[in-house]
C-alpha cells in the first residue's frame, strides 16, 4: 500500500471557510418550558426564580437556573433521567448562555424517546 504525500494535510474550499453567524445568548426559556404538559409533568418556581420540571413518576428532571445553579460554575440547565435497576440513567448540563433553542431541541428529543410502561 502506498500513501500520496504530495498533498499533505486536508483540503477544503473557500466557501467552506467563510465566516458564519452562530446563534448566541440564552434566548427565551419558554421555548423549553412550553414543551411540558401539566397532565404529565410538575412545574415549580422556587424563591430564587429557578424553574424545576419533573415527570409525574419522578424519573425525569429539568432545572433552569437563570443566575446559575448553586454550587456550580455557571450551570444554567440540568436535565436528568433516572435509570432502572439494570440500566443506568444519564444527565446533561448546559451553561447559562446556551441558547434556549439548543436546550429545547435536546429536551424535545429526550421526550420523544419516552413511552408509557
Topology:
Elements: H1 30-33, E1 41-45, E2 51-55, E3 60-64, E4 75-81, E5 90-95, H2 100-113
Antiparallel strand pairs: 1-2, 2-3, 3-4, 4-5
Keywords, please?
117 residues, alpha+beta, five-stranded antiparallel beta sheet
| Stretches with pLDDT under 50, minimum 5 residues | none
* Multimer state: single chain
How would you characterize the largest beta sheet? 5 strands, antiparallel
Shape: extended
Q: From the alpha-carbon coordinates, what is the Rg to the nearest angstrom?
A: 20 Å
What is the share of helical residues? 10-25%
Number of helices: 2
Give the end-to-end Cα distance, rounded to a whole number of Å.
Answer: 54 Å
| Percentage of β-strand residues | 15-25%
Element pattern in H and E: HEEEEEH
Structural class: alpha+beta
- Strand segment tally: 5
What's the pLDDT, averaged over the residues?
A: 90
**Sheet with most strands: strand arrangement:** 1-2-3-4-5
Outline:
The protein has 117 residues and is an alpha+beta fold. Helices cover 15% and strands 24% of the residues.
Q: What does this protein structure show overall?
A:
With 117 residues, the chain is an alpha+beta fold. The protein is 15% helix and 24% strand. It has a 5-stranded antiparallel β-sheet, with no helix packed on it.
Amino acid at each position: 500500500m502506498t500513501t500520496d504525500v504530495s498533498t499533505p494535510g486536508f483540503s477544503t474550499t473557500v466557501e467552506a471557510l467563510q465566516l458564519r453567524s452562530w446563534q448566541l445568548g440564552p434566548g427565551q426559556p419558554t421555548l423549553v418550558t412550553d414543551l411540558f404538559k401539566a397532565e404529565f409533568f410538575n412545574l415549580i418556581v422556587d424563591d430564587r426564580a429557578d424553574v424545576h420540571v419533573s415527570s409525574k413518576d419522578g424519573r425525569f428532571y429539568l432545572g433552569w437556573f437563570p443566575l446559575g445553579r448553586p454550587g456550580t460554575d455557571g450551570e444554567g440547565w440540568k436535565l436528568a433521567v433516572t435509570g432502572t435497576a439494570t440500566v443506568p440513567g444519564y444527565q446533561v448540563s448546559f451553561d447559562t448562555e446556551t441558547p434556549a433553542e439548543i436546550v429545547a431541541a435536546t429536551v424535545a428529543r429526550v421526550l420523544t424517546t419516552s413511552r408509557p410502561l
